Each structure stands twice: as C-alpha cells, then as structure tokens.
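Thanks for the sequence, V.! I ran DUF1440 domain-containing protein right away. Repeating your input here for the record:
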Amino acid sequence: MNGAPRRWVAAGLLAGALDIVYAIAIWSTRDVAPAVVVQAIASGVLGRAAFGLGGTSVALGLALHFAMTLAMAAAFAFAAGRLAWLSRAPLLAGAGYGVLLYVLMNGVVVPLSRAPLTGAPWPIAWANLGAHVFLVGIPIALIVAGRRARSADARALPH
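Predicted structure:
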C-alpha cells in the first residue's frame, strides 16, 4: 500500500483539472461564463441560490468538483487493488470507468441533487461522455496502474 494515497490523489487532481478546464471550454461555446459553470456544480447542493452567491459558490463548486474526482480516483484505486486486471489493461479499464462515471453522474448524482439543470444539448452530451472517458477515466487508470506497475517492478528486482 506504500504510495497508494499519492496515486489516487494525483489521479483525482489531474482528472479534476482536466475535466473542469474541459467543462469551461465546452460551455464557453454556448457563451456560459466560467463562474457559472462552476456555480452549476455548487447548485447540486445549494439549488438555484448558487447562481447568486458569487465567489462563495464558485469556491464551493470547485471544492465539490475536486472532492468528486478524488473520490472517483480513490474508488478506482480501491477496485484496482482487488481486481488486478484493472491495472493490467488501464486503457480499457479507464475507458469503461469513464463510461460508468458518466452514467452514474448523469443518471444518479445530478438527478438526486438540487441542481436546477436540464440535460445538455446532444452534441455537448456526447462530448461530455468523451471527456469522462479520455479526461477522467483513462488518466485515473493510467496513473493508478502506472504507479502500481512501477511498484511491482521495484519489488521484483533482486535486492
């Protein structure tokens, strides 16, 4: 387990950064301000009030976003510690994990939240699916598997 927290923390922070930059970029094509994108995350807890709280809800939205991606990475690391094939095939496992995360976020988490949002237009919804695969699932799997593989290689070396 040595280094395990570093693996999932690094994976979660990277995935969170990639995903929030993506979200801001994709919604800017619809003239949605970056602060509003992040406030939309905070609206999951605060409802419509998030859009009137300025920097407070922006900070909350960022904190929630990174808490979620850290939890996503921790969950993958936990699973990879028990299912070795996840680390042996990180691209496939990461792609599948990205699809699973997309379905869970859009089918369970957002509907159960206080977010007053409707579904994204289909071109953005498809792009969001791709982002969950390529910017969240695969990076998490590669970091977790890559570090795990290096650790296994180091243990296999003669001492």
